[in-house]
Amino acid sequence: MLFAPLRSLARPLCASALLLALLSGCASTGSHTPTTAQAAPPIQVKVFVAAMFEIGANTGDRAGEFQHWYERYFRNAQPIQVPGALGPVFCNADGVCGSVLGMGKVNASASIQAIVLNPQFNFDQAYYVISGVAGTPPSRGTIGDVTWGSWLVDYDLGHRWAPEEGQPGAPVFVPRKGYEDYRRFALNPALTQAAYAMTRAVPLQDSDSAQRYRMRYPDAAARKAPSVHVGTHMTGDTFFHGPGLSKEAQYIAKLYGADDYVATEMEAAAIALVLKRSHGTDRILSLRGSVNFDQGNPQETTQAHLDPKPGDTAGGFAETVANVVAVGGVFVDTVVKDWPQWKDGVPAQR
């Protein structure tokens, strides 16, 4: 039996014990401390696939840039919401993740920055496949082609003037000083060549409409069946079109010391800049499928080619987006299967 003074002391002790018991299962005034829930470890990303747009749903309807990736890798994945990104990220059990970033340089770069800085993911050893559709000059490629980017060049960073205000036939572009580290990126040649070597013989789909459309062009490259190539990807928010601006794009590529311009797109150089600042560019791949020529044939105006009559479109879109994933999936599957050889960098090629 406790004396009265001791009973008064016991009440707060018992109250403390009760709180501890509720938090930690302790039934006495011992020294146990409450346990706290551990945060889930970040997802170790092996390959991140970045698409720019989707048409409707991620599966079951007309495919855009992401649907075939989703159906191949993410059918059973739960969406992971990332503040600041256009859409959710999907990840499978093998460490392959992907998302739709949005079209255009600002849209896509804002999304990729939000994703790579999000603590739910660990990108320290990740490879990036920037994936989408593109245009191609008929002198360099054709509808249905798939190209790995060797260089990413920003088309917009510079000074331009109207052609009539310069020398006849001379270029109307000069680079802007101070943008040397922002306007072009030489991607890791070992990685690009490894990806090309493992995919160069991948069979590509074609369509009757694309085959007929190619015959409008006199260029040998435009008339060929689709295949896998390597070259410079030209990034421009400006949807440049026509033989004059195509020639200018090739001029800019050569001005910067890059390879031949083979694909025009709207995001890759901006995404590369974001990744350069956070993780470097050694593990970036740019993969584009050609769904249009960057100019009309010699018998049509640029405006007519941009706004074709019914039945005059190129065709081959569905086949091209399937080709992109058929080619890119070989690389993704190889990295996952042989991860011990790839995790520290591109393995030596035999």
Provide an overview of this structure.
With 350 residues, the chain is an alpha/beta fold. The protein contains eleven helices and 13 strands. Strands 2, 3, 4, 6, 7, 10, 11, 12 and 13 form a nine-stranded mixed sheet that branches. Strands 1-5 form a two-stranded parallel ribbon.
State the main characteristics.
350 residues; alpha/beta; Rossmann fold; nine-stranded mixed beta sheet; two-stranded parallel ribbon; 11 helices; 19% strand; globular
List the helices and strands and how they pair.
Layout: H1 4-24, E1 43-44, E2 47-51, H2 67-73, E3 90-91, E4 96-100, H3 105-116, E5 121-122, E6 127-136, E7 146-154, E8 158-160, E9 173-175, E10 184-186, H4 189-199, H5 208-214, H6 220-223, E11 228-235, H7 243-255, E12 261-265, H8 268-278, E13 284-293, H9 302-306, H10 317-337, H11 339-342
Parallel strand pairs: 1-5, 2-4, 2-6, 6-13, 7-11, 11-12
Antiparallel strand pairs: 3-4, 7-10, 7-13, 8-9
Helix pairs in contact: 3-8
Q: Report the CATH architecture.
A: 3-Layer(aba) Sandwich
Overall body shape: globular
Strand content: 15-25%
What would you call the quaternary organization?
single chain
Mean pLDDT figure = 90
Number of helices: 11
E-strand count: 13
Uncertain stretches of 5 or more adjacent residues: 1-36
What order do the SSEs take from the amino end to the carboxyl end, as H and E? HEEHEEHEEEEEEHHHEHEHEHHH
Q: Briefly, what is this?
A:
The protein is of the alpha/beta class and 350 residues long. The protein is 33% helix and 19% strand.
